[in-house]
Amino acid sequence: MVRLKRSRDDKIRSNEVQNSCNDSAPISQSRSSNTMSESNSTQAASHLESSQNQPHIQETIEVESTDILEIIDTEGRIKRKRGIQHAKDVWNLPMGERIVIKCNRFGQPLKKGGGILSGWLGLVARMGNWCPIGYKRWKIVPSRYKIDVLNLTRSKFVLPNSDIDKWVLKSLSRKWKNFRFELKAKYMLEDLTEQQLASNVPHGIVPHQWVDLVRYWFSEKCQLYSQVGKTSRSLHTTHHTTDSMSFGRKRDEFEIEHGREPSRLEFFIETHKRKDGTLDKPSQTIVDNVGKKIVEKGGTSESSEATSELQDEVYTDILGKDRKLVAFLTLLSVRKLNNIMTLTSVRKFKEFLMLLSVRKLNNIMTLTSIRKLKEFLTLLSVRKLQT
């Protein structure tokens, strides 16, 4: 089955290369070799054109119009441009020209170039010839696709070192998952059967990939994971307000303005405040609680470094407890619960999830919820989740 899926994807990629002159979707020849040179990657990427046949779900990015992009050509000459404002403009770069990307010490792209790169990866994640959506998880997408995307990315951007490859793949994974979520939210209506949904292939989606994805959506396992995800998200009471701007770029802005790194509390405020500078009620409650704890621990210090350390300590103490449960639910969903759950274990798990959803746990797990969890985990251990 896996071999058949791979051969179908290869056929699609091959056909797209042959029809590149008549097709406006960005395409390129498959480059599965790890030793392929960057120059060959650039030549292959020159076949790409503006995308018009992909799903009408656009990747928006927030870039600073005053920022200047550095673009380097094949002879090493650097030009500074303001014209590129959108991720789709990357496809129209002259052959051999690449956008220079600068990163912070965490390997996160910064400034306008980082925003363009992030948005461009969002476009690539929506292209079935580069990132097929028919696989159950990003982890099992064949590595050759990921290598191809890295080569394609390096044909359009000058990345500082190989360490950023991890960031690129992580960002691509998140955008790939988000795209599938958007498709599910838009097309998977309650009154549709699996056959009806599978036959309604969205514009720009590879048909056999859509069928595979729909089959997975209707599986018992996927529906259980979906319930886990909904419960996990319901425990998130604070939401960031940075839109498409990455935390790395937000941190860089703070460091430029203040000449130092932000404390965890300061960064929380920066990433959660509204445009008018105010916070929503849950976020404001966290800030107030941290402030009270700081006063209890001896107040502020004349040293900004000491103050930041105290803020970090209190912030971690308060928010760490809230996130342990969310981390557990995320881990539970990622570990896949060892294939197929028995009806009894499903019932136990649903009871536990319902209890979590109703109680919100008030930051502390009740004895009842602990008992339910222990019963569920014991059942998983004993039954071994027979396949």
From TrEMBL:
Signal peptide: none annotated. Residues 1-56 are annotated as: Disordered. Residues 28-43 have a biased composition (Low complexity). It comes from the Eukaryota. Residues 15-27, 44-56 have a biased composition (Polar residues). It holds the Pfam family Transposase_24. PANTHER family: OS10G0409366 PROTEIN-RELATED, PTHR33144:SF52. This is Uncharacterized protein LOC109712811. It comes from Ananas comosus (Pineapple).
